[in-house]
Protein backbone atom coordinates (compact mmCIF):
# COMPACT_ATOMS: atom_id res chain seq x y z
CA UNK A 1 0.00 0.00 0.00
CA UNK A 2 1.63 3.24 -1.14
CA UNK A 3 1.07 6.68 0.33
CA UNK A 4 2.57 9.90 -1.01
CA UNK A 5 4.65 11.78 1.51
CA UNK A 6 3.63 15.44 1.31
CA UNK A 7 4.27 16.03 5.00
CA UNK A 8 5.58 19.29 6.43
CA UNK A 9 8.80 17.55 7.57
CA UNK A 10 9.59 15.76 4.31
CA UNK A 11 13.37 15.73 3.90
CA UNK A 12 14.10 15.83 7.65
CA UNK A 13 16.11 12.85 8.90
CA UNK A 14 15.52 11.76 12.49
CA UNK A 15 17.57 9.21 14.40
CA UNK A 16 15.29 7.92 17.16
CA UNK A 17 17.51 6.21 19.74
CA UNK A 18 14.94 6.60 22.53
CA UNK A 19 13.05 3.79 24.24
CA UNK A 20 9.64 3.09 25.78
CA UNK A 21 7.16 5.98 25.40
CA UNK A 22 8.06 9.69 25.56
CA UNK A 23 10.89 9.65 23.00
CA UNK A 24 9.27 7.17 20.59
CA UNK A 25 6.03 9.17 20.74
CA UNK A 26 7.96 12.30 19.76
CA UNK A 27 9.58 10.37 16.92
CA UNK A 28 6.20 9.16 15.68
CA UNK A 29 4.81 12.71 15.65
CA UNK A 30 7.74 13.80 13.48
CA UNK A 31 7.34 10.71 11.27
CA UNK A 32 3.60 11.24 10.83
CA UNK A 33 4.40 14.67 9.41
CA UNK A 34 6.86 13.40 6.85
CA UNK A 35 10.23 12.99 8.57
CA UNK A 36 12.36 9.94 7.78
CA UNK A 37 12.63 8.34 11.24
CA UNK A 38 15.21 5.62 11.86
CA UNK A 39 14.64 3.75 15.12
CA UNK A 40 17.85 2.48 16.69
CA UNK A 41 17.33 -0.63 18.82
CA UNK A 42 19.40 -3.23 20.59
CA UNK A 43 19.12 -6.84 19.47
CA UNK A 44 16.51 -7.35 22.22
CA UNK A 45 14.46 -4.43 20.91
CA UNK A 46 12.67 -1.63 22.69
CA UNK A 47 11.28 -3.22 25.87
CA UNK A 48 7.81 -1.82 25.29
CA UNK A 49 7.48 -4.31 22.42
CA UNK A 50 6.65 -6.66 25.29
CA UNK A 51 4.10 -4.42 27.04
CA UNK A 52 1.08 -6.62 26.29
CA UNK A 53 -1.25 -8.26 25.63
CA UNK A 54 -2.52 -7.67 23.04
CA UNK A 55 0.29 -8.51 20.61
CA UNK A 56 0.30 -8.03 16.85
CA UNK A 57 2.98 -9.74 14.76
CA UNK A 58 5.17 -10.19 17.82
CA UNK A 59 4.97 -6.62 19.15
CA UNK A 60 2.53 -5.14 21.63
CA UNK A 61 -0.29 -2.82 20.63
CA UNK A 62 1.35 -0.43 23.12
CA UNK A 63 4.54 -0.39 21.02
CA UNK A 64 2.70 -0.16 17.73
CA UNK A 65 0.75 2.92 18.82
CA UNK A 66 3.91 5.05 19.10
CA UNK A 67 6.28 3.58 16.48
CA UNK A 68 4.61 3.78 13.08
CA UNK A 69 6.31 5.62 10.20
CA UNK A 70 9.75 4.41 11.29
CA UNK A 71 12.44 2.02 10.08
CA UNK A 72 14.32 -0.10 12.61
CA UNK A 73 18.02 -0.86 12.63
CA UNK A 74 19.84 -2.92 15.27
CA UNK A 75 23.04 -1.38 16.65
CA UNK A 76 24.96 -2.58 19.69
CA UNK A 77 25.82 0.76 21.27
CA UNK A 78 27.81 -1.00 23.98
CA UNK A 79 30.54 -1.52 21.39
CA UNK A 80 32.79 1.11 19.90
CA UNK A 81 31.93 -0.04 16.37
CA UNK A 82 28.24 0.30 17.16
CA UNK A 83 28.68 3.84 18.42
CA UNK A 84 30.70 4.72 15.33
CA UNK A 85 27.78 3.45 13.23
CA UNK A 86 25.45 5.74 15.19
CA UNK A 87 27.77 8.70 14.69
CA UNK A 88 27.96 7.96 10.97
CA UNK A 89 24.16 8.19 10.85
CA UNK A 90 24.32 11.52 12.66
CA UNK A 91 26.65 13.00 10.04
CA UNK A 92 23.69 13.82 7.80
CA UNK A 93 20.88 13.64 10.34
CA UNK A 94 18.80 16.65 11.31
CA UNK A 95 17.52 15.35 14.65
CA UNK A 96 18.67 12.93 17.36
CA UNK A 97 16.14 11.74 19.95
CA UNK A 98 17.62 9.89 22.93
CA UNK A 99 16.98 9.15 26.59
CA UNK A 100 20.28 7.58 27.69
CA UNK A 101 21.48 7.95 31.26
CA UNK A 102 24.25 10.51 31.62
CA UNK A 103 26.42 7.78 33.13
CA UNK A 104 25.87 5.71 29.97
CA UNK A 105 27.03 8.60 27.78
CA UNK A 106 30.07 9.08 29.98
CA UNK A 107 30.94 5.39 29.70
CA UNK A 108 31.08 6.02 25.94
CA UNK A 109 33.59 8.86 26.53
CA UNK A 110 30.87 11.44 25.88
CA UNK A 111 31.34 13.89 28.76
CA UNK A 112 27.94 15.62 28.61
CA UNK A 113 24.94 16.32 26.43
CA UNK A 114 26.64 19.32 24.80
CA UNK A 115 29.06 16.96 23.02
CA UNK A 116 26.64 16.01 20.25
CA UNK A 117 26.03 19.50 18.88
CA UNK A 118 29.73 20.29 19.25
CA UNK A 119 30.62 17.35 17.01
CA UNK A 120 27.58 17.78 14.73
CA UNK A 121 26.96 21.55 14.59
CA UNK A 122 23.71 21.39 12.55
CA UNK A 123 22.19 18.60 14.65
CA UNK A 124 19.07 19.17 16.74
CA UNK A 125 19.80 16.97 19.76
CA UNK A 126 16.62 16.28 21.78
CA UNK A 127 17.56 14.79 25.13
CA UNK A 128 14.73 13.34 27.22
CA UNK A 129 15.39 12.60 30.89
CA UNK A 130 13.42 11.97 34.04
CA UNK A 131 14.54 15.05 35.96
CA UNK A 132 17.34 16.62 33.92
CA UNK A 133 21.01 15.76 34.30
CA UNK A 134 21.72 18.11 37.22
CA UNK A 135 20.03 19.54 40.32
CA UNK A 136 18.75 17.82 43.48
CA UNK A 137 16.95 15.13 41.45
CA UNK A 138 19.38 15.27 38.52
CA UNK A 139 20.18 11.90 36.96
CA UNK A 140 17.36 10.02 38.67
CA UNK A 141 15.50 7.63 36.37
CA UNK A 142 12.08 8.81 35.25
CA UNK A 143 8.92 6.70 35.25
CA UNK A 144 5.51 8.17 34.51
CA UNK A 145 3.76 7.11 37.71
CA UNK A 146 6.72 8.03 39.93
CA UNK A 147 6.94 11.47 38.34
CA UNK A 148 3.18 11.93 38.70
CA UNK A 149 3.72 11.31 42.42
CA UNK A 150 6.78 13.57 42.78
CA UNK A 151 5.22 16.40 40.75
CA UNK A 152 2.07 16.51 42.88
CA UNK A 153 -0.32 15.13 40.26
CA UNK A 154 -1.37 12.13 42.37
CA UNK A 155 -2.04 14.39 45.34
CA UNK A 156 -4.80 16.25 43.50
CA UNK A 157 -6.30 13.33 41.60
CA UNK A 158 -9.07 11.13 42.99
CA UNK A 159 -12.09 11.55 45.22
CA UNK A 160 -12.26 13.80 48.24
CA UNK A 161 -11.01 11.98 51.33
CA UNK A 162 -9.88 8.90 49.37
CA UNK A 163 -6.40 7.67 48.55
CA UNK A 164 -4.54 9.47 45.74
CA UNK A 165 -5.10 7.94 42.29
CA UNK A 166 -2.70 7.76 39.37
CA UNK A 167 -4.01 9.53 36.29
CA UNK A 168 -5.07 6.61 34.10
CA UNK A 169 -3.29 7.56 30.87
CA UNK A 170 0.52 8.03 31.04
CA UNK A 171 0.01 11.77 30.86
CA UNK A 172 3.58 12.64 31.87
CA UNK A 173 5.20 10.49 29.20
CA UNK A 174 2.77 11.66 26.51
CA UNK A 175 3.12 15.33 27.45
CA UNK A 176 6.90 14.94 27.45
CA UNK A 177 6.74 13.40 23.99
CA UNK A 178 4.67 16.32 22.69
CA UNK A 179 7.04 18.82 24.33
CA UNK A 180 9.98 17.03 22.74
CA UNK A 181 8.42 17.17 19.28
CA UNK A 182 7.55 20.83 19.78
CA UNK A 183 11.09 21.56 20.99
CA UNK A 184 12.53 19.90 17.90
CA UNK A 185 10.33 22.02 15.63
CA UNK A 186 11.34 25.20 17.47
CA UNK A 187 15.02 24.29 17.13
CA UNK A 188 14.61 23.47 13.43
CA UNK A 189 13.01 26.88 12.89
CA UNK A 190 15.88 28.55 14.74
CA UNK A 191 18.38 26.61 12.60
CA UNK A 192 16.76 28.06 9.48
CA UNK A 193 17.81 31.48 10.80
CA UNK A 194 21.16 30.71 12.43
CA UNK A 195 22.42 27.64 10.55
CA UNK A 196 23.20 25.99 13.89
CA UNK A 197 21.64 23.12 15.75
CA UNK A 198 21.15 23.07 19.50
CA UNK A 199 20.30 20.93 22.50
CA UNK A 200 16.60 20.49 23.31
CA UNK A 201 16.43 19.56 27.01
CA UNK A 202 13.08 17.99 27.95
CA UNK A 203 12.34 16.19 31.20
CA UNK A 204 9.37 14.26 32.53
CA UNK A 205 9.48 16.30 35.74
CA UNK A 206 9.29 19.66 33.97
CA UNK A 207 6.49 18.41 31.74
CA UNK A 208 4.51 17.17 34.73
CA UNK A 209 4.82 20.48 36.56
CA UNK A 210 3.78 22.33 33.41
CA UNK A 211 0.39 20.55 33.40
CA UNK A 212 -0.30 20.85 37.14
CA UNK A 213 -2.81 23.55 36.28
CA UNK A 214 -4.52 25.27 38.01
CA UNK A 215 -3.37 23.65 41.25
CA UNK A 216 0.24 24.84 41.20
CA UNK A 217 -0.62 28.44 40.37
CA UNK A 218 -3.47 28.45 42.89
CA UNK A 219 -1.03 27.39 45.61
CA UNK A 220 1.62 29.93 44.57
CA UNK A 221 -0.91 32.76 44.87
CA UNK A 222 -2.91 31.60 47.89
CA UNK A 223 -0.55 29.49 49.98
CA UNK A 224 -3.33 26.90 50.36
CA UNK A 225 -2.34 23.29 49.64
CA UNK A 226 -4.75 21.84 47.07
CA UNK A 227 -6.57 18.60 47.83
CA UNK A 228 -8.32 16.13 45.50
CA UNK A 229 -11.64 17.40 44.19
CA UNK A 230 -12.93 14.28 42.43
CA UNK A 231 -14.71 15.36 39.27
CA UNK A 232 -15.20 18.88 40.57
CA UNK A 233 -13.11 21.85 39.45
CA UNK A 234 -11.17 23.94 41.93
CA UNK A 235 -12.07 27.23 40.24
CA UNK A 236 -15.30 26.65 38.28
CA UNK A 237 -18.85 25.75 39.42
CA UNK A 238 -20.85 23.90 38.18
CA UNK A 239 -18.23 21.51 36.84
CA UNK A 240 -19.02 17.94 37.86
CA UNK A 241 -20.67 14.63 37.04
CA UNK A 242 -24.40 14.63 37.71
CA UNK A 243 -26.60 11.56 37.99
CA UNK A 244 -29.72 11.70 35.86
CA UNK A 245 -32.68 9.37 35.55
CA UNK A 246 -30.61 7.36 33.01
CA UNK A 247 -26.89 7.93 32.27
CA UNK A 248 -24.55 10.22 34.22
CA UNK A 249 -23.66 13.54 32.58
CA UNK A 250 -20.48 15.58 32.86
CA UNK A 251 -21.34 19.28 32.82
CA UNK A 252 -18.70 22.02 32.63
CA UNK A 253 -20.18 25.53 32.83
CA UNK A 254 -17.48 28.20 32.80
CA UNK A 255 -19.42 31.47 32.71
CA UNK A 256 -22.62 33.11 33.91
CA UNK A 257 -24.33 33.09 30.50
CA UNK A 258 -23.93 29.32 30.21
CA UNK A 259 -25.12 28.86 33.78
CA UNK A 260 -28.31 30.73 32.97
CA UNK A 261 -28.86 28.53 29.89
CA UNK A 262 -28.31 25.40 31.96
CA UNK A 263 -30.78 26.49 34.60
CA UNK A 264 -33.48 27.33 32.03
CA UNK A 265 -33.05 23.89 30.45
CA UNK A 266 -33.26 22.26 33.90
CA UNK A 267 -36.43 24.16 34.78
CA UNK A 268 -34.69 26.11 37.55
CA UNK A 269 -34.49 29.65 36.08
CA UNK A 270 -34.53 31.15 39.57
CA UNK A 271 -31.06 29.90 40.50
CA UNK A 272 -29.03 32.58 38.61
CA UNK A 273 -31.12 35.24 40.40
CA UNK A 274 -30.01 33.94 43.80
CA UNK A 275 -27.08 36.13 45.00
CA UNK A 276 -25.31 32.98 46.17
CA UNK A 277 -25.16 31.69 42.60
CA UNK A 278 -25.13 34.88 40.50
CA UNK A 279 -21.42 34.74 39.54
CA UNK A 280 -18.81 32.03 39.28
CA UNK A 281 -17.03 33.47 42.30
CA UNK A 282 -20.17 33.24 44.40
CA UNK A 283 -20.97 29.78 43.05
CA UNK A 284 -17.51 28.55 44.11
CA UNK A 285 -18.04 30.02 47.57
CA UNK A 286 -21.48 28.36 47.84
CA UNK A 287 -20.63 25.19 45.96
CA UNK A 288 -22.29 22.74 48.37
CA UNK A 289 -25.64 24.56 48.40
CA UNK A 290 -25.73 24.81 44.60
CA UNK A 291 -24.83 21.13 44.16
CA UNK A 292 -27.88 20.16 46.22
CA UNK A 293 -30.16 22.20 43.94
CA UNK A 294 -28.57 20.95 40.72
CA UNK A 295 -28.49 17.29 41.78
CA UNK A 296 -32.21 17.43 42.52
CA UNK A 297 -32.93 18.91 39.08
CA UNK A 298 -30.65 16.57 37.12
CA UNK A 299 -32.25 13.52 38.74
CA UNK A 300 -35.47 14.27 36.82
CA UNK A 301 -34.04 14.34 33.26
CA UNK A 302 -33.02 11.71 30.72
CA UNK A 303 -29.25 12.03 30.62
CA UNK A 304 -28.60 11.13 26.99
CA UNK A 305 -31.26 13.32 25.38
CA UNK A 306 -30.71 16.15 27.85
CA UNK A 307 -26.98 16.11 27.19
CA UNK A 308 -27.62 16.41 23.45
CA UNK A 309 -30.06 19.25 24.12
CA UNK A 310 -27.48 21.12 26.20
CA UNK A 311 -24.74 20.67 23.59
CA UNK A 312 -27.06 21.92 20.85
CA UNK A 313 -27.57 25.07 22.96
CA UNK A 314 -23.81 25.51 23.41
CA UNK A 315 -23.69 24.29 27.01
CA UNK A 316 -20.73 21.92 27.58
CA UNK A 317 -22.22 18.57 28.60
CA UNK A 318 -21.50 15.00 27.66
CA UNK A 319 -22.41 11.44 28.65
CA UNK A 320 -19.55 9.35 30.02
CA UNK A 321 -18.56 6.86 27.31
CA UNK A 322 -16.33 3.82 27.61
CA UNK A 323 -13.43 3.22 25.21
CA UNK A 324 -15.47 0.80 23.07
CA UNK A 325 -18.14 3.43 22.50
CA UNK A 326 -15.49 6.00 21.65
CA UNK A 327 -13.72 3.69 19.19
CA UNK A 328 -17.02 2.90 17.46
CA UNK A 329 -18.32 6.46 17.42
CA UNK A 330 -19.14 8.01 14.09
CA UNK A 331 -17.24 11.17 14.93
CA UNK A 332 -14.01 9.35 15.79
CA UNK A 333 -14.32 7.61 12.43
CA UNK A 334 -15.13 10.85 10.62
CA UNK A 335 -12.11 12.61 12.16
CA UNK A 336 -9.94 9.60 11.24
CA UNK A 337 -8.84 9.20 14.85
CA UNK A 338 -9.30 5.42 14.68
CA UNK A 339 -7.28 3.84 11.87
CA UNK A 340 -8.15 0.36 10.64
CA UNK A 341 -6.09 -0.79 7.68
CA UNK A 342 -4.81 -4.21 6.62
CA UNK A 343 -1.28 -3.21 7.65
CA UNK A 344 -2.02 -1.01 10.68
CA UNK A 345 -4.65 -0.57 13.38
CA UNK A 346 -4.25 2.20 15.91
CA UNK A 347 -4.93 5.81 16.87
CA UNK A 348 -5.12 8.47 14.19
CA UNK A 349 -3.22 11.73 13.71
CA UNK A 350 -4.59 14.69 15.71
CA UNK A 351 -2.89 17.52 13.79
CA UNK A 352 -4.50 18.09 10.40
CA UNK A 353 -2.63 20.40 7.98
CA UNK A 354 -4.43 21.53 4.85
CA UNK A 355 -1.47 21.85 2.47
CA UNK A 356 1.08 19.42 3.92
CA UNK A 357 -1.03 16.65 5.46
CA UNK A 358 0.36 14.02 7.75
CA UNK A 359 0.11 10.38 6.71
CA UNK A 360 0.60 6.84 7.95
CA UNK A 361 3.01 5.50 5.34
CA UNK A 362 4.49 2.57 7.19
CA UNK A 363 3.36 0.26 9.99
CA UNK A 364 5.57 -0.15 13.07
CA UNK A 365 8.84 -1.88 12.13
CA UNK A 366 10.06 -5.34 13.04
CA UNK A 367 13.26 -5.34 15.09
CA UNK A 368 16.20 -4.58 12.82
CA UNK A 369 14.15 -4.92 9.64
CA UNK A 370 16.66 -2.70 7.81
CA UNK A 371 20.41 -3.09 7.49
CA UNK A 372 22.76 -0.23 8.28
CA UNK A 373 23.35 0.23 4.56
CA UNK A 374 19.64 0.37 3.82
CA UNK A 375 18.85 3.11 6.32
CA UNK A 376 21.15 5.50 4.52
CA UNK A 377 18.40 6.02 1.93
CA UNK A 378 15.13 7.91 2.55
CA UNK A 379 11.65 6.42 2.79
CA UNK A 380 10.71 7.69 -0.64
CA UNK A 381 7.03 7.73 -1.53
CA UNK A 382 6.10 4.40 -0.02
CA UNK A 383 6.53 2.49 3.21
TrEMBL record:
Protein name: CoA transferase
Species, as recorded: Diaphorobacter aerolatus
Keyword Transferase carried by entry: yes
Gene Ontology molecular function terms on file: CoA-transferase activity
SUPFAM superfamilies named among the record's database cross-references: CoA-transferase family III (CaiB/BaiF)
Chain residue ranges for the region called Disordered: 363-383
InterPro entries noted in UniProt: CoA-transferase_III_domain (IPR050483), CoA-Trfase_fam_III (IPR003673), CoA-Trfase_III_dom3_sf (IPR044855), CoA-Trfase_III_dom_1_sf (IPR023606)
Organism domain of life: Bacteria
UniProt keyword annotation of Transferase present: yes
Amino acid sequence: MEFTNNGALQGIKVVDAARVLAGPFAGQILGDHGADVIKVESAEGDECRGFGPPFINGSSAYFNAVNRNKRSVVIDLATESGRESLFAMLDDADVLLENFKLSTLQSWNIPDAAWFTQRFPRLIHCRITGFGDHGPYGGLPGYDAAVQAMAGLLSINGDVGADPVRIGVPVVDLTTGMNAAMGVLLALQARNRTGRGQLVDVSLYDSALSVAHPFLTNYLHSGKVPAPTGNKHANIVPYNVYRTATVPLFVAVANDRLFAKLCIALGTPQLPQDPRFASNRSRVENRDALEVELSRAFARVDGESFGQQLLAQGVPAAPILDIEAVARSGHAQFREMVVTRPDYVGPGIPIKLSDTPASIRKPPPAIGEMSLDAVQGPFGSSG
